[in-house]
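Hey, I'm writing a tutorial for new members on how sequence and structure tokens pair up, and I'd like a real worked example in the thread rather than a made-up one. If someone can provide the structure for the chain below, I'll link this post from the tutorial.
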Amino acid sequence: MHFLAQRRTLAAAGVLLGLLAASNAGAQGTVNALCSTDASWCEAAAAEFARATGIRVLQAHKGTGEIAAQLRAEAANPKTDIWWGGTGDPFLQAAEQGLLDPYRPAYINDLYDWSVRQYAMSQNMVGGFYTSAMGFGFNTDVLRKKKLPEPRCWADLIKPEYKGEIEMSHPATSGTGYTIVAGLVQLMGEDQAFDYLKKLHRNTTAYTRSGQAQAPNVAKGEVAIGISFIFGFDRWRYDKYPVKSVAPCEGTGYEIGGIALVKGARNKANAIRYYDWLMSPAGQSIGAKAGSLQSPANKTFKPDPRIPSMSDVRLIRYDFEKYGSAAERKRLIDRWTREVESQPR
């Protein structure tokens, strides 16, 4: 089944199962959730959890930057119980700002070390939900028609021949976009990274609100090259689209997706049930079934073989504590807005 058809099927199933679960809602209650990972995973997880438990999931899908802003705006009167999926830096910033509740699950030993470290770093307010490496994907048909070479390194993307051919997400609204900037700063050094980002800006045709836009836009041929997490491009490749993905030769950053309980949650018991289910093999395996190919945090089951291996990727030593702080995020985004986004293309 092609991914788009699969997604429509999952969405329809989510509505149906949500209605079926609603019949038990009086007894089982509800949970209010925000989800920042791929919409297909968000929808499928909510539907399956509702079917399994009878708990009605009222869930919206938004970018991590948007959700972090929403939680700040709602701090005095929280309307959300649980937030899951999406890049971890905004989760760590929300923890720092007192917007989340601590929770250290009893099954902590079932999780990979990189997941457990997120709990330790955030005083148990943020768990590591999945991981994936940053890179870029490209449409081989578009590049061939335009007689452009396939990029392999960060240095390739700033070559003049790629002007108007590249798309990435906006770091102020997208955790993915911020991870790109923060990763390049750690890879190159800050001043050198901003010199690079200015050159990349000249070749960039658009900055999208969400980092989930690049893979489908590349797959459909709407843009030649997209910068985002590698797994997103691979699922379109498996659906026979003319897409390839690359981990940059110089090295690259990566994400640890987050999961957290919101401080002041109205339905905390059900939020914990949803949290525990999402971190279980049943919940973690939903991602690949829905075409979302991140590496899961739970190590007690065999992951989908389509999930791209990170063993050959040159990963930087990403400092989640420093670059996950609200002050550092604001400083880097302000500098990017002032020095990069303001420049003509």
